[in-house]
Amino acid sequence: MTWFKGLEDDSIDSSHFTTRKRQPKTMASLSNILQGKDESLRDYIERFTREAIEVKG
């Protein structure tokens, strides 16, 4: 998978492979992060914060 992550943007023109490339996180994607049933509030906030740091823009 290392070779795949190293590909330049828009270098794949087949939709067969485009879903495998990691998409940038957005503000909207943060709304999908939910606290797990057995997850402590502290762990949830830490996980949310890690994800929020990766949001572009």
From TrEMBL:
Q: This chain belongs to which protein, by name?
A: Retrotransposon gag domain-containing protein
Q: Where is this region: Disordered?
A: 1-27
